[in-house]
Design goal:
This protein has 166 residues and is mainly α. Among the domains are: 44 residues, no CATH class; 44 residues. The protein contains seven helices and no strands. Helix 3 packs across helix 4. The longest helix has 34 residues. The protein binds zinc ion (ZN).
Amino acid sequence: MHCRAVRMQLVAFQDGELSPGQRTQVREHLDRCAACAKLERRLEEVTPRPFVEVDPELQETMWRRLDAAIDAAFRRQRTLPPPSRLQLWWRWLAEETTVPTGAMLAYASLLLIAITWGAHNWWTAQQLQLALNQRDASAPMQLVVPAEIPADQFRPAAWAPEEDQP
Ligand SMILES: [Zn+2]
């Protein structure tokens, strides 16, 4: 095997990526050729080792701390008070809707005002109807002339729609 071919395969040789046959050939060449053996040593010095040996005690400490941190996080989560019904509702509102909260509140206020106004009108109408029902329907309408107006100057309004044409 020539030096050139060996040097092209040195990295693969060190990473253990050669077939057993190729590996034996490179190994035999390195035993015979000092120049290639020197290059192989230098290459090994600058090649980062993929598997770094970590102190088992250090590793154990790291895992213990990680477990403790995860445990603590879970315990913190468990001790949180459960969200109130209002908070849940508010969260649902924020997640399920795309309308801004301000616009939603404004719309709700307008709706409330409209409903209140309608209810008030309905109540007034009911009261008027009640008053009409209580009045004696058979009695003629009493014409009450205010005392400030002299009797001879008072004339009941007589409006005939058919004469009111322009
Ligand atoms: Zn060589």
